[in-house]
Amino acid sequence: MTRREFLRIAAGTSAPLAVSQLGWAAMLVPSGAHHAAHSRVLNLFNVHTGESLHAVYWRNGRYLADALFRINYLLRDYRQNRVKPIDTRLLDLLTTLRQRLHGAGPFQVLSGYRCPATNAMLHAETGGVSAHSLHMEGKAIDIMVPGRSLARVRQVAWDMQRGGVGYYPGRFVHLDVGRVRWW
Questions:
Q1: Distance, first Cα to last Cα, the chain
Q2: What's the pTM?
Q3: Would you tell me which of 54, 68, 82, 177 could form a disulfide with 115, CB atoms 3.0–4.6 Å apart?
């Protein structure tokens, strides 16, 4: 039934209904559903810089350049102060992960983009850093989620089957949008 048909029927009843534009919209779309269906939001906290961000980065079928710029900056290589565009598939993966974790707190980011020099330094210092890390391509992130165990974050991410999932107990979970694998 169209809005016009509804109003015509309502106007013809013995007890007329007054439906405002807002009231009509509320009847058609459950509270919050319109916003959720037509936008994607990220809530991030960079543990190294103390910076936080709450951004709608996708709305009505398109990515929002200003929000992507701010996300890219927060996820920059803070050691070298270098910014690289983050793969939007990674952002979408985080959004889906947040939904499946039922609205957990902000993602605490330990590592987003890494420039080759930073990655080489970390590779030389630690055994767990790949020489060809997807962090250098803006396709990987290391996170913690307040209020959720790392084991739970790992399991939910693995169940999604949307890329690599690395589990570092007591430290973080690595996510990437490369081939599906786990360690």
A1: 53
A2: 0.79
A3: 82
